[in-house]
Amino acid sequence: MNPFSAWNSGDGVPPSVYGALPAADSSTLPSLVFTFAPNPSLLNCTVMGPNNATHFYVVTDPNMPTYTVFKAHDGKSLALIEWQQTPQVELRGLVAKQAASSFLKLSSDQRFRIMQIAGQEYLWIPSQNSIALYPAGVHANSNTRLAQISRGASGVVLEINRHAAQAGLLPACVVATVLLQSGRNFG
């Protein structure tokens, strides 16, 4: 019998990669920060993440200006916005092609936008200097915030909670950031 097996509390915290030291709780770790570096605009930009590494490219080809493609750092297409009279959004394997106004549905009181991913609703709620993402049905505060969009000196900034990123919300948040900050009308 392993005398150290009692250390496994079964609380879902993964074992430490450092051996005897307990694993860090990722809720205490800082959010992941992604900066959208315009080239020349948000519709053509590089999305830089932790360690100043390129994570995404947002590309609007001048020969096809009605299409904005979102690519991973390896060039794989992740999402597409079709800028038509009624703009369309698609996120491969995550969100079927739909109107951008459905992807980020305006609430009935027009105070926030509702984003649905994998059957779960999330709320993008604007404040004075940012737009923050919360799970629907919980009290919106700094403890429940999943992501936040703001403008910094170097451009648009997306901060996302590590749990939300690991749960697969990062691509949807990147697309939402471009929609919400592009200046284009999508309904």
Short synopsis of the structure:
This protein has 187 residues and is mainly beta. It has helices spanning 100-103, 162-166, 170-181, and strands spanning 32-38, 45-48, 54-60, 67-72, 77-82, 88-91, 95-99, 105-106, 113-117, 120-126, 130-135, 147-152, 155-160.
Task: Describe the protein's topology.
Layout: E1 32-38, E2 45-48, E3 54-60, E4 67-72, E5 77-82, E6 88-91, E7 95-99, H1 100-103, E8 105-106, E9 113-117, E10 120-126, E11 130-135, E12 147-152, E13 155-160, H2 162-166, H3 170-181
Antiparallel strand pairs: 1-2, 1-13, 2-3, 3-4, 4-5, 5-6, 6-7, 8-9, 9-10, 10-11, 11-12, 12-13
Main structural class: mainly beta
Q: Give me the number of helical elements.
A: 3
Strand share of the residues? 35-45%
Unreliable runs: 1-27
Rounded to the nearest angstrom, the radius of gyration is 19 Å
Q: First CA to last CA: what distance?
A: 63 Å
Q: What's the order of the H and E elements? A: EEEEEEEHEEEEEEHH
Biggest beta sheet attributes = 13 strands, antiparallel
Structure commentary:
The protein is mostly beta strands. 11% of the residues lie in helices and 38% in strands. It contains three helices and 13 strands; from the N terminus they run βββββββαββββββαα. The protein has helices at 100-103, 162-166, 170-181; strands spanning 32-38, 45-48, 54-60, 67-72, 77-82, 88-91, 95-99, 105-106, 113-117, 120-126, 130-135, 147-152, 155-160. The protein has a 13-stranded antiparallel beta sheet with strand order 7-6-5-4-3-2-1-13-12-11-10-9-8. It is globular.
